[in-house]
Specification:
Layout (H helix, E strand, L loop, with lengths): L1 E7 L2 E6 L9 E10 L5 H5 L17 E8 L11 E4 L8 E5 L3 E3 L11 H14 L6 E5 L3 H12 L3 E6 L2 H9 L4 E4 L3 H12 L4 E6 L4 H10 E9 L12 H7 L2 E4 L5 H16 L9 E6 L3 H10 L6 E5 L2
Parallel strand pairs: 8-9, 8-11, 9-10, 11-12, 12-13, 14-15
Antiparallel strand pairs: 1-2, 3-4, 3-6, 3-15, 4-5, 5-7
Helix pairs in contact: 2-3, 2-8, 5-6
């Protein structure tokens, strides 16, 4: 099979790799595509603790496709089933997944890309956020996750204030139901604007979806007394400092919304499938850029640099 591998920081090589064979309890998926995740960017830039080159297909964990082989003991799945998978080497033509970590895609999704991992992640973040009707929710960072969360929170009856750098991101937030949008340019101006919009009360929930120090600082400032700060951004580039004095004084709850329990991850994936299949969520506007497998390096650069109109890159294999 053809597979992309991270040969060195900033360099993707295409390799001919053996097609993997499923072991007991596994399925093999003939991949249609795989989403590109912002968590790929630090390995792409170079991390001291990483070993290069990586595995064929490595970094790819947002794949979908069709089962073409079953391992021993697999039940409830069949060759030809179209699925989304939680697997880890999907920048390749084939990948293996545990049978309990794939979910069937219904006929309503035929022909549509479905990067299940990030969609499921958004639903799990939403559940951890405990958003309720009538609350005010600030979402900091309107990329893929922020946009989906805007839809989920607004559908729950919350008033969403979307905060992001790019005008097109704020327009996207309005498309998904944001009641208010604020340009992310000046720390103190944003705080004052949120105070004005909320009558000084600030926000019942604040979801930080960037993964950088400043958005985290801003998020703490925007949480109301007794509110909840939800950390959805992936903070992988070093330690963070937080104002514990402020957090203590406000008496806020802080939720790390990254799930590692496989059963919870699959719950989010199944919820995402249901919402997209029945039309409650249309993620199509979020798939802004598509690349062939040999264009993975360009896809990673675009994910980092965010050219105009960029939201999410998909690597298409079929």
């Amino acid at each position: 099979m053809r597979a992309a591998l991270l040969a060195a920081p900033g360099r993707i090589d295409l390799a001919d790799a053996p097609r993997p064979e499923p072991g007991a309890g596994e399925v093999r998926i003939r991949l249609e595509g795989c989403g590109v995740c912002a968590s790929n960017l630090e390995p792409w830039a170079g991390l001291e603790w990483m070993t290069y080159p990586g595995e064929p297909g490595g970094l790819g964990h947002e794949g979908w496709g069709t089962i073409d082989a079953l391992g021993e003991g697999v039940t409830g799945l069949a060759i030809g089933d179209r699925v989304a998978a939680l697997s880890y080497r999907s920048f390749a033509e084939y990948d293996l997944a545990r049978a309990d970590m794939v979910a069937k895609l219904p006929a309503a999704l035929d022909g549509q890309p479905f990067p299940g991992e990030p969609l499921g992640c958004a639903f799990n973040i939403f559940r951890r956020s405990d958003v309720r009707a009538g609350q005010t929710v600030a979402i900091i960072g309107i990329g893929f996750l922020g946009a989906v969360l805007t839809r989920l929170c607004s559908a729950a009856g919350a008033r969403v204030i979307a905060i992001s750098r790019r005008p097109e991101s704020l327009e996207l937030a309005r498309h998904y139901g944001a009641a208010e949008t604020i340009a992310m340019d000046d720390h103190w101006r944003i705080i004052e604007q949120v105070k004005t919009l909320t009558g000084e009360a600030l926000c019942d929930r604040v979801i930080e979806a960037v993964g950088k120090q400043w958005p985290l600082d801003l998020a703490g400032e925007l949480v109301a007394f007794g509110g909840r700060l939800v950390i959805a951004g992936y903070h992988q580039d070093g330690p963070r400092q937080v104002s514990m004095q402020m957090w203590n004084w406000k008496g806020i709850d802080v939720a790390n919304a990254h799930e590692r329990d496989p059963a919870v991850q699959m719950r989010g994936l199944r919820e995402a499938i249901d919402w997209v299949a029945d039309g409650r969520l249309d993620p199509a506007p979020l798939y802004s850029h598509r690349y062939p497998l040999e264009g993975l390096g360009e896809a990673l650069d675009a994910t980092r640099d965010k050219p105009e109109g960029f939201v999410k890159a998909l690597v298409m294999l079929r």
